[in-house]
C-alpha cells in the first residue's frame, strides 16, 4: 500500500507536505516534487 501524502500546518508558517506530490502552476505546468518533504508558503505575498 502506498503511504498517504501528509500536510502539516505550522503556526505563522508554511504548509509542510510530505509524500508524493504533483504541483500545477497558474499556467497549467506540472512538476513532480523531487524531495520527500516540501514547504508551501501561505502568506499570500508570493507572486509568479
Automatic annotation (TrEMBL):
Tell me which UniProt keywords the record has, alphabetically.
Answer: 2Fe-2S, Iron, Iron-sulfur, Metal-binding
Q: Give a yes or no for keyword Iron-sulfur in this entry.
A: yes
Q: Matching Gene3D superfamilies, A to Z? A: CDGSH iron-sulfur domain, mitoNEET-type
Q: Which residues form the Iron-binding zinc finger CDGSH type domain?
A: 12-46
The protein, known as: CDGSH iron-sulfur domain-containing protein
Source species: Floridaenema evergladense BLCC-F167
